[in-house]
Hints:
Blueprint: E1 3-9, H1 16-26, E2 34-40, H2 47-57, E3 61-65, H3 72-82, E4 87-92, H4 102-112, E5 116-120, H5 129-146, E6 158-161, H6 162-165, H7 178-184, E7 190-194, H8 210-228, H9 233-263, H10 275-302
Parallel strand pairs: 1-2, 1-4, 2-3, 5-7
Antiparallel strand pairs: 4-6, 5-6
Helix pairs in contact: 5-8, 9-10
Amino acid sequence: MDLSIVISVYNEEDSLKELTGWISEALREESLKYEVIFVDDGSTDSSWEIIEEITRFNPAVKGISFRRNYGKSAALYCGFEAAEGEIVVTMDADLQDSPEEIPGMIKMIREDGYDLVSGWKRKRYDGKLTKNLPSKLYNFTARKVTGIKLHDMNCGLKAYKSIVVKNIEVYGEMHRYIPYLAKNAGFSSIGEKTVKHQPRKFGKSKFGMNRFINGFLDLLTLWFLSKFGKKPMHFFGLIGSLMFLFGTLTSLYLIVQKLIHQSQGLKYRAVTDQPLFYISLVALIIGMQLFLSGFIAELVSRNSSERNSYKIKKRI
């Protein structure tokens, strides 16, 4: 199998037949043996019935149906597991991703040696300020945190070597950061291709403004796990130790200052009358809590079944 196209579907009954025909037309001139895997993410319309109908007439099309809505990450995870192609392409089911871009992305993987090629919708047709401005800020932050120079990290149209999708775990809402997951798994050859963005033809977007907030929190989670997932004490222990040291030194300073003034008969303030004493006390408590959090997290990490899980490239 040369190519697997994984498509997450949620209430897209109007677009499925047209999308299937568009894919067939776009790949007609290519000498590719391919499959299309529709993953129905608990649709409440007739999307699954249409997928079943398509599979009866098109043997290249396969379907997976969830009992309820789990989210795009779950759909992609199951699609990646089922994919048999040497190259795996993901795209959305709403006709905004053009299948005509697929041959060019495959070429970049086969001839240019990329592990992953991400689409960049340079010119968009959902030009709302409330979508575009947060998207630009989101992508800017993602570039700075991940170190991956992609203009559109969350573009649904991507192509991967099969080995990439078989070595990453997409869960929660981490589908936004598949390039970062791939990088953390050791696949650092990541390219970008400018792709056409089609105007929405049916329905409306399934994602609201909360995706940017959730996306930022997921980004922080991924960053933390990649940096300190197997050594949490290095994060919590360091910050906790610094705060505890600050609290200790500040408290000692106030106590020694009072004793010196008292011994010399000078006017002095009681230690408990000074705001700095309570700041140092809070620093001591928080520092101790952070240190203990790191210690407990380290115990959990050391007992994890994946503590010695590493991505091995070759054996000889």
